[in-house]
């Protein structure tokens, strides 16, 4: 019985529709997941709650509690409530968030889950291991929506394009707008919660004295005001960033 159930479980699919990462601290975050389980066979079964390792490109970074799942032949929607996750390996976790932010696709593995499946009045012990492919944010691509003068600096709206099912609250972010060869043009700050799809956020910018801008540049993450892991994650971001005339007219040598 155990080997048959394990075989069916191994062939099943887990499709992620939404992951929300919020409330970052130096050692923790909160995560909620919505997903769908399919290809579990013609008979319904109940998979008992269990704890699994979350494994990214550099190994295990945390553990998550999975709820009870009652499978159906047509597939089952599963909602994992918001829960606090302790980061057990920061290097592994930062590699995972880097993959989320920069890659077109990433792989996360739920591993080492020891559980019980009940079906047909019988129980089977299983080991849960499921590799899941998820679209990444691929940058994420960003652009100025509007730029207006504000004293010696400016106020602006920035749009972020996120094709991933993952959303992250990055906190109060600090960015540099740079030339393509890395010369600082300005620094801008604003609170950023990267939602699925498109997100527009507000920033206040200060212009670097003596800077001169062309029409192309890049947006580079410097850190966050909060003392959290997001401070390190933001530093890996550097994306092409078009500089409209409203911006370049303010940045003059």
Automatic annotation (TrEMBL):
One of its GO terms (cellular component) is fungal-type vacuole membrane. Pfam families: DUF3712. InterPro entries: DUF3712 (IPR022185), Tag1 (IPR046368). This is Uncharacterized protein. It comes from Eremomyces bilateralis CBS 781.70. The lineage of its organism: Eukaryota, Fungi, Dikarya, Ascomycota, Pezizomycotina.
């Amino acid at each position: 019985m155990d080997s048959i159930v394990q075989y069916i479980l191994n062939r099943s699919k887990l499709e992620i529709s939404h992951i929300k990462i919020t409330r970052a601290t130096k050692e923790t975050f909160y995560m909620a997941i919505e997903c769908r389980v399919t290809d579990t066979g013609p008979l319904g079964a109940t998979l008992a709650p269990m704890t699994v390792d979350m494994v990214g490109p550099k190994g295990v970074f945390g553990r998550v509690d999975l709820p009870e799942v009652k499978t159906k032949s047509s597939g089952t929607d599963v909602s994992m409530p918001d829960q606090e996750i302790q980061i057990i390996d920061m290097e592994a976790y930062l590699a995972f968030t880097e993959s989320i932010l920069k890659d077109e696709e990433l792989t996360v593995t739920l591993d080492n889950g020891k559980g019980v499946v009940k079906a047909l009045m019988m129980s089977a012990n299983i080991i849960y291991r499921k590799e899941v492919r998820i679209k990444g944010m691929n940058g994420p691509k960003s652009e100025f929506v509007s730029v207006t003068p504000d004293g010696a600096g400016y106020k602006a709206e920035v749009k972020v394009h996120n094709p991933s099912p993952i959303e992250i609250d990055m906190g109060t972010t600090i960015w540099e707008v740079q030339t393509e060869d890395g010369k600082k043009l300005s620094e801008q700050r604003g609170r950023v919660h990267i939602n699925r799809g498109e997100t527009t956020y507000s920033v206040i910018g200060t212009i670097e004295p003596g800077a001169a801008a062309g029409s192309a540049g890049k947006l580079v993450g410097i850190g966050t005001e909060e003392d959290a892991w997001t401070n390190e994650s933001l530093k890996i971001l550097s994306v092409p960033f078009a500089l409209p005339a409203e911006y370049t007219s303010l940045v003059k040598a």
